[in-house]
Design brief:
One of its GO terms (molecular function) is quinone binding. This is SDR family oxidoreductase. Helix content is 46%, strand content 17%. By secondary structure, the protein is α/β, with parallel strands linked by helices. The protein contains 8 helices and 9 strands.
């Protein structure tokens, strides 16, 4: 049995998920690095002395099998972080290829729902556990060309609230972190384009796009005993962008 809590983070091979897994591992928790990039998951898990879990969260059968395997080995899952997400592309609503919408829905909504459902059952039996979802301020503030992605994150916020109210009688909390743009491999193009970066940073009162190290601690906090009276919240981490 691993020391510390058993923490499963999806989409943790790189970017924000990797940073979140690192934050938990740094506190002595055992990080299970779930990602459809099996090689990337192995690399990150090795760095954290954790465990890789190759997984496509949009595949219901794969999710069920993966959670069963984790439970068989560790006996429990104390924290689930639903971080995996995709943008899939961009475009105005009237012109967007429906395949781009479907790709985002499959991972961001279906995947988050399937993982929550699968992990909720053993947590309910144990009457203990924490779920942290990764949403976005885009769920509350529209950006032209990103409507499909923002719709999926609004759904993540709704899943968070439903999870919180339905699982509260079992002592299980569910919250979300809702970043603005974050410097990750997913946003590398934005970060490397001075004009595009400057345009986005003009929307942020604090003037800078977030780094992973500014977001991961919030997930750690929401899963901690210090947040024991917080549930159903989607915490904006946006440098004040929602104020603008």
């Amino acid at each position: 049995m691993a020391a510390g809590r058993i923490v499963l983070v999806t989409g943790a091979a790189q970017g924000l998920g990797r940073g979140i897994a690192q934050a938990f591992a740094g506190k002595g928790d055992f990080a299970i690095v779930a990602d459809r990039d099996a090689a990337g998951a192995e690399r990150t898990a090795a760095e954290l002395s954790g465990q890789a879990l190759p997984l496509d969260i949009s595949d219901a059968a794969a999710v069920s099998a993966a959670i069963a395997a984790v439970l068989a080995e560790h006996g429990r899952i104390d924290v689930l972080v639903n971080n995996a997400g995709v943008v899939g592309g961009g475009g105005l609503l009237a012109d967007l290829d429906v395949a781009v919408l479907d790709a985002a829905l499959a991972v961001n909504v279906r995947g988050t729902f399937l993982m929550t459902q699968a992990v909720a059952r053993p947590m309910m039996a144990a009457r203990s556990g924490v779920i942290v979802n990764v949403s976005s301020i885009g769920a509350r503030q529209p950006t032209p060309g990103m409507g499909h992605y923002e719709a999926t994150k609004a759904a993540v916020d709704a899943i968070t609230r439903t999870t919180a109210i339905e699982l509260a009688p079992y002592g299980i909390r569910a919250n979300a972190v809702a970043p603005g743009p974050v410097i990750t491999p997913l946003t590398a193009g934005l970060a490397e384009n001075p004009e595009a970066r400057a345009a986005w940073e003009r929307r942020i009162p604090l003037g800078t796009i977030a780094e992973v190290a500014q977001i991961a601690p919030a997930a750690l906090f929401l899963a901690s005993p210090e947040a024991s009276h917080i549930t159903g919240v989607s915490l904006a981490l946006d440098g004040g962008q929602l104020l603008a």
